[in-house]
């Protein structure tokens, strides 16, 4: 059993290295299962396990009757300090960004939102539900909560662009700091519907608290990203005098 796991892990790594080295480019058809069995001298079950994992992780796409193809590159998003809007990050990757606003409603703050946003119970909170797309494919489903007093009457037009830019331009609210918590989750029925993915597909889940320059909480959000369409870049800068690891 251990040997089988090692074999399919080796095949998966070899194929992934070839994809990342662009031996196989997006849209290219990879060798058939039988060809891979001969190349690696392994069973079809071992090859299929490796291909299934690469498909689940979004590197391959399998089409019935046609074969297995290299998937389009995942959308990269930066988690470090950045002032680039979603559309800008997508554009430099040769994709067209779109933000679709599902709804904007005003709800009373429950106990959880009162704690996250440091507001009183039942204070009016704007609940903004959006989907972000790249080349018309959904990559992110997000629910943002903004106190009414922070930015009263946010419109769909404002939410359909950069929400943070709209807060600054239209409401004089500057986002000075965000704290983000990242977890892996599985798509429930709502996420599956809005992200156009299978139920229980792996997703990134990011919870964000945004503060202004006075350390006042101005937004709490929950965002879900398709694991097979998105990856994240984390860049750290270290001072010269810092020798810690």
From TrEMBL:
SMART domains: HTH_GNTR, UTRA. It comes from Virgibacillus pantothenticus. One of its GO terms (biological process) is negative regulation of DNA-templated transcription. PANTHER family: MANNOSYL-D-GLYCERATE TRANSPORT/METABOLISM SYSTEM REPRESSOR MNGR-RELATED, MANNOSYL-D-GLYCERATE TRANSPORT_METABOLISM SYSTEM REPRESSOR MNGR-RELATED. One of its GO terms (molecular function) is DNA binding. Gene3D superfamilies: Chorismate lyase-like (3.40.1410.10), Winged helix-like DNA-binding domain superfamily/Winged helix DNA-binding domain (1.10.10.10). The keyword Acyltransferase does not apply. Pfam families: GntR (PF00392), UTRA (PF07702). It comes from the Bacteria. Keywords: DNA-binding, Transcription, Transcription regulation. This is GntR family transcriptional regulator. PROSITE patterns: HTH_GNTR. InterPro entries: Bact_HTH_transcr_reg, Chorismate_lyase_/UTRA_dom_sf, Tscrpt_reg_HTH_GntR, UTRA, WH-like_DNA-bd_sf, WH_DNA-bd_sf.
